[in-house]
What we know:
Elements: H1 9-17, H2 20-27, H3 34-41, E1 46-48, E2 63-65, E3 68-70, E4 74-76, H4 89-99, E5 104-106, H5 114-118, E6 125-129, H6 135-147, E7 152-156, H7 166-171, H8 199-207, H9 214-223, E8 228-233, H10 236-244, E9 249-252, H11 266-277, E10 283-286, H12 292-300, E11 305-308, H13 310-342, E12 355-357
Parallel strand pairs: 4-11, 5-6, 6-7, 7-8, 8-9, 9-10, 10-11
Antiparallel strand pairs: 1-12, 2-3
Catalytic activity: glycolate + O2 = glyoxylate + H2O2
Enzyme class: oxidoreductase
GO biological process, one term: oxidative photosynthetic carbon pathway
Amino acid sequence: xxxxxxxxxxxxxxxxxxxxxxxxxxxxxxxxxxxxxxxxxxxxxxxxxxxxxxxxxxxxxxxxxxxxxxxxxxxxxxxxxxxxxxxxxxxxxxxxxxxxxxxxxxxxxxxxxxxxxxxxxxxxxxxxxxxxxxxxxxxxxxxxxxxxxxxxxxxxxxxxxxxxxxxxxxxxxxxxxxxxxxxxxxxxxxxxxxxxxxxxxxxxxxxxxxxxxxxxxxxxxxxxxxxxxxxxxxxxxxxxxxxxxxxxxxxxxxxxxxxxxxxxxxxxxxxxxxxxxxxxxxxxxxxxxxxxxxxxxxxxxxxxxxxxxxxxxxxxxxxxxxxxxxxxxxxxxxxxxxxxxxxxxxxxxxxxxxxxxxxxxxxxxxxx
Length: 368
């Protein structure tokens, strides 16, 4: 894998290594996949305004997330069913995150359990939570995350139903019988059955609670003392409601463009959310990050950090834990280079005036 020079190159290797059904599950988006393309493309509508002749002989990428010191503002988003990519699945990802000194988020829908991932060693970890119809089950999951030393809950709020992912419908997506959703293993809901369409969509319809609302965020706070991040926010209105509900942070996310198609790219929605948050709680971004330049642009627009999803599963499929380590290292190196060439020695020096977005000055930014 020495020939890999950037994060995106792992996708072609993953496509070669994985069964079509698995690759399509990881790679595809909802319906026309407009937002899927847009999540990547929108970054190219933001250009740099670098400052020169600044001493950049030492550059510090470290930051504090939810009170925890991390080596860089690049973290791992929750992606489900990672053992479809590599036999070591989420445990390999956890080790890579820990080695890089950054945060991993474990999905509710993981093939490795909350406890298995915790047992890989020390690390700052979030547990991504789907609220299920059975609230006792939700309480159990949250308690298990607390006991295993997870540092926060990331509540996914954009999935009352699963988006229409047509590749999964065509492929009749199902998980290999040798794998289980490990967090549910002893509850008779660890398997995804084969159906005429997407097995996952049928599974989710039976399990997830469509009545999830703001009152449930309050309920979650009664069952845990862990900070709660709300994932799936893309508007100012919902940002204000997150703050009112006592959220500890917001993840600007469109679920990797897998839920509602024709929502804006997350980088396009970011500034609206940041302005509405008024610095009261941190705002993070996921979706479309493939370069250190993308990370810098998100930080310049006010994000406190970014989460990466598909680059993790693709590098995991290509090279296991070493692949994920390399992705984190490449993004780190690229961010450091972008900072040096922009005249920034620390994250707090990255300002809005280091970039110009197409919506600022249409005559400067490229038309796509």
